[in-house]
Fold each of these.
Amino acid sequence: MATVRSSKDNDPQIGKAPKKSVFLWTYKDPEKKGAVQSGEIEAVSVTTAKVALRQRGFRDRYLTLTKQKESLLGGIKSADIVGFLQQLSTLQNAGVSLVESMQMLRLTAKKTAMRSMIQKMMRNLQEGNQLSDALALFPKFFDATSVALVRAGEQGGVLDTVLRNIAEYREKDYSLKKKIRSALMYPGITVAVMIVVVIILMVKVIPVFAKLFHSFNAQLPALTQIVVNLSYWLKDHVVFLIFVPALLIAALIWAYRRSYKVRWQVDRITLHIPVIGKLLLYGATARFMQTLALLYSAGVPIQESMNTLAKVSGNTVIDAGVAKARESVLAGGRIADGLKETYLPDLSVRMLSIGESSGNVELMARKTGEHYAREVEEMVARMSTLLEPFIMIMLGGIVGTLVIAMFLPMLDMGKAILHGSGVS
């Protein structure tokens, strides 16, 4: 893929260089019976892209250019990044240069988005930058932890080992997040379906029975009358009951993403929710300890390590506590002492303190992270086992109550009919 540079790109008097875009090109070679070639080219505009391709011998008449959408990078999954890091580690271990490694990975990448991202990294390396700088161009896929580790690996000459460790860490972290997400989504989806079923019964089915009962001028039992009254009320307010909660949830999500105070309050409340709060806390603790072990193994300086650790738990309250602990650590204190005032479990802090006392922080942090990761797995398994019958009992109780409420008048009318037949 060629890169077209304007003479104004690096002119300090012009200011910021024009933003370049990636164009996908196809060329039907008339000299090879219409054989199709394809590739990518980065340029400021279609015109400059065509000029660059024309210089390579392509004729406009047989050339097609389309601009690659930025959203294509959204097609990159966590598994793609893990695979990229593992392959790059292998190539580095074999002694292949970074630029050559990137070229090989770009040619073998199946996704257009991956090829585009690797191409930009390769170009950044060719300009004299380090791999950590190239990865930092894509914070969506390479967070501060990964960049800090790669930078430490570059300085220590163990880049291949660091890349392999990052890949393993990312794989474990993704698996942990997926398990927590699944544990939280299952009851949420089940309850949502239950609410929808009950609303349909109350708004569509119960009113039909109510009209039938009224046509017989039947005296409704107390339970049936309560259900019918509730059904009429829900029918009159169904729009309000659906859209207002939906708007409130949307507003909360919007505020959570944009306001630190809202995010802090929500994260604090979730930590106190029974079962769910413990699951989230253990997941955050496992992530924190595993990251600490990885940073120590790579030899990342303590100041940079604490800056990174204050962003990895996924919970604003825990991150704020770690950020506060950072000050005492930088003043010469121990990590465990600074973490005592955080939400992290006491056991994890004590285990880390033992590691600091014995001079083996990396091992103790890794063991602690593995312990809490196992705790998360066991909690997810228990939740799946216990929640399913509980939710089914609750759903059966609600639906059963509605069914009984509708059949009680029918039983009364049946008795009345039989009694009338006996009297006559």
Note: The CA atoms of residues 337 and 353 lie 8 Å apart.
Amino acid sequence: MRRTLDALYLTSGVLAALFLMLIAVSILAQIAGRAMGGVIDATEFSGFCMAASTFLGLAYALRGGAHVRVGLLIEALPAHWRRRLESFVCAFSAGILGWLAWCAGTYTLQSYEFGDLSPGLIAAPLWIPQVGMTLGLIVMTIALVDEFWRLARHGHATYIDNDAGSLE
């Protein structure tokens, strides 16, 4: 199970990086188009890629300890209280993100059913960019439940072990 989850987080991170590369490609295409006297409008496409990259990168960043955390209170607590607070935060966050994933999934499904199109020059079906957001939220929820489980079993979370800015 551990390998599967780690592969899921890595795949999500790789997809996030891929969407960042697509942003770079679209910008280069715009520059090349202007240099050759043409107009290539990839602003909307870049926005879709940025949303997908942001949401798909959430779980990978969590596992790497790259999320911003306010450790002032947590670091001042004794170990047993720190573990309880971290567990509460993971469980609470998983609940909120699970709900957001459900709402995003419902919204994505409705966009697909109604045939919603983007309002820009390229009338793209809106469900396509919304899938990246929904998948990112689902994977992040899984990662938070995974971290909660690690805290319950081992007493520490992966994001704490990998935190580059930790004072410990």
Note: The CA atoms of residues 122 and 132 lie 18 Å apart.
Amino acid sequence: MAAYPRYRFDHGFGAPAPVVEPEVVEVADPLDLPTLSEREHQAALAQARASALDEGLAQGRAEGEDAAARRTEAELAATLDQLAQRMAALDADHAALMGRLEAEGALVLVALVRRMVPQLLDKVAREEVERLAADALRAAGQSPVLTLRLHPSLRRPLEERLAGQSAFSGRIDIQGDAALAVGALEASWGAGSVRRDPAAFEAAVAALADRAVAALMPAPSSDIT
């Protein structure tokens, strides 16, 4: 009789033992596994909030600086425009002032000339009378008589001036006439005559002065009624 090892059987007894399926172990996705503690989570949230706040502040500061720069540029442009307009107005005012001063200066000069003309005529009266008398002597030529009429104050100086002249061979008749202005002279001979009237010259200067004043004075405004 053959011997068998203890507890070893060739056949089982009773119902067959159920086959035990191997347990399936589900492997979790590493991304689904919690990796932070609550403290670390709160710290991460705080850091995120701080980063967002810093970014917001930086963006707000940049936007504020840009807005301030644009506002400053606009204000500067407006100020420069106003300054340019003011400078143009000042230039116009300066030009008007200079024009007015020049006109006033010209008016003063015209007034001075007009006032000084009689004095100047009196000052050159003797020289002008002697010059015109010399012209009359040459113009009289071969006439027998040359008559010269002038203010009595200049009669003797003219006689002294013409003494010894050789331009006229006829007789020179010098007459004083108080009705004539100082500096006036009337010369006549048979074929012609010449005359110097300082009053006419003074009137001509006065007319020129009046025209100059009229040109310098501003035209009246059409709005004034």
Note: The first helix runs from residue 38 to 123.
